[in-house]
Amino acid sequence: MLLSCGIRHEVPTIPLPAISRVWPSITAPFVTWTQHRCNASRPWSANPPRILDVGAGTGRYVEAVARALAALYAMECWAVAFDASTSMVTCGLPKTHSACLHRAVGVAERLPFATDAFDAVLSFNSVHYFHLDAFVSEAVRTLRPEGLLSVYTRTPEQNEETIWGRLFPEFAKRETRLHSEIDLCSAMMRCTRLSSVHAEHRPWTMDTNLTRLLAQARGRYYSTFRLYSTEEFPLALEAFRQRVLAEYPSSSTIRAQNDHLLIAARKAPSGP
Questions:
Q1: Angle in degrees, CA 93, 96, 102, rounded to 5
Q2: Which pLDDT belongs to residue 200?
Q3: DSSP string, 4-52
């Protein structure tokens, strides 16, 4: 279902989900308070959770969250994949037939949803496209009291340490949009409606091979690859191929280390 963004959408009132149990990237720091909110809420069967994924692209992350919630609680959540690109959201979620999964088009700095509409607002690998202060303000506005704002991203330093940053010529240098950890945390701490902000690094390992890496680059898997001209890209790709072969004895089995930053914040409770 594609939502029209000409008006602010009213979303059914539903309690906070146990997001920390269904998406590994936002697990540890928030188990205590999410469980507290869930225990205080009405029964799950009558009140499925509400989730907004901002900068969702095709919606693969919010779909994964929704499926995990359905598997854990045998119920569907009310989830929205929201992105600035019409082509991305309209081609996303094609295999999902649930009436509780929606798509909407608009900008992160002006979310077309009602105040206190969602239990959780998520952003996976997309916050570098947003104006930080405006996005945080809007995300918090749409969160219900004690709701969760979770941002999963890479910093410039983390980007430099990826296999792309280390071996693809000028990959890290050309990618200037990523926010620093200080800037991200500061933007959240400037929002007085957030009662807590927590940041941590989440390292993980990627198992891949040279064929797949080259295909990802050619397919512009990261938007950074679009910063190369038609003449520059083939030369950079060939240099990357040679560097990978020099560093990894077996190009069919490549294990690369990655690191992401997770920042999660909790909206302050409502007044007495």
A1: 65
A2: 87
A3: P-SSPBP----PPP-HHHH-GGG-GGGHHHHHHHHHHSPPGGG---EEE
